[in-house]
Amino acid sequence: MTIGSILIVDDESINAETIKDILEDVNYKVVLATDAQQAKTIVKTQVFDLVMMDVWMPGQDGMSLLEEWLSTGFSMPVVMMSGHAQHQDVVRAIKLGAVDFLQKPLHDILPLVRKILSEHKLNKNQSKNGIDFSLPLKTARNLFEIQYLNHLLEENNHNIAKVAEIAGLERTTLYRKLKDLGIDKK
Hints:
Elements: E1 4-9, H1 13-25, E2 28-33, H2 36-45, E3 50-54, H3 62-71, E4 78-82, H4 87-96, E5 100-103, H5 109-125, E6 127-128, E7 131-132, H6 137-155, H7 160-167, H8 171-181
Parallel strand pairs: 1-2, 1-3, 3-4, 4-5
Antiparallel strand pairs: 6-7
Helix pairs in contact: 7-8
């Protein structure tokens, strides 16, 4: 019987296989993806308790994939990993929404995984209808507004005038809100 499912996104197969072996030895179900595109395909059909993702990968890097996922309401917890991360990478990952940042090579990974998964289960219990009630109001509102405005922009081919009309905002107010939330107007 598995105790949780984990997706590892890492182009370094030796690192990914080592983590997989450690986690499978204690009954976690582990799926490997070698790049962002493969990870996107996998998460369309499978749900994971945790995603562990390398920062530096060929093609789309882990940070931009994290940002892409979280801007679309992705709810699986993501841990970023890197063997040569700088302080600003760690800060950026956490600000984007990663639950943790691990330095490779990973040592004593089991206690870290257990801690992250138990914290996520606690947070999941504080959530109702997809809303995390443990978040401060401003953070929850910003997360909603990001999802809402991204949806309207995509649905209306990034037509700012149309989105402003639907959202009931003046265009200048919408431009300011998009900038404040870090949303690309395209």
